[in-house]
Design brief:
Blueprint lengths: L2 H14 L9 H11 L15 H13 L13 H11 L2 H13 L2 E2 L4 E2 L2 H19 L1
Antiparallel strand pairs: 1-2
């Protein structure tokens, strides 16, 4: 084993055996605080480090973050399509989806459904479809 390999092993062991996640004592926190007193903050006095163009790009990038789906542009294989179809046709999934659709328009504060289109759909169901299904 070379000297360098021994050095790397020592470094790794040091990291493994470190008190990771252990809370610092009040005394240690005070020592760290005292050692940092008088140091200038890393960003003190730094202004105008980004151009307007760069700021604009960063703003647009931050706004778009999370909007593009992870699978955008990817085609599902026939096997994947069959699996998705099979999964969506399970009774518990259908029930969960229908409940989430209704809850999306339900105002829990007033205990009323708040969407006009949904109300009209429910009325049509109550008047026309429910009697037909009961037969």
């Amino acid at each position: 084993m070379t000297k360098y390999e021994l050095f790397l092993m020592f470094k790794i062991l040091k990291i493994i055996l470190a008190k990771k996640g252990e809370k610092l004592s009040e005394e240690t926190r005070q020592k760290i605080s005292q050692s940092k007193k008088g140091q200038v903050a890393w960003n003190k006095g730094r202004t105008g480090i980004y151009s307007e163009e760069t700021k604009k790009k960063m703003s647009v990038s931050q706004f778009k973050k999370g909007m593009t789906p992870h699978n955008k542009g990817k085609k599902a294989t026939e096997d994947e399509k069959k699996k998705m179809s099979k999964a969506m046709n399970r009774p518990e999934v259908k029930k969960k989806l229908s409940e989430s659709f209704v809850l999306g328009f339900f105002n829990s504060a007033t205990n009323q459904i708040t969407s006009a289109p949904l109300l009209s759909i429910l009325m049509i169901y109550e008047i026309f479809l429910k009697p037909i299904r009961a037969k």
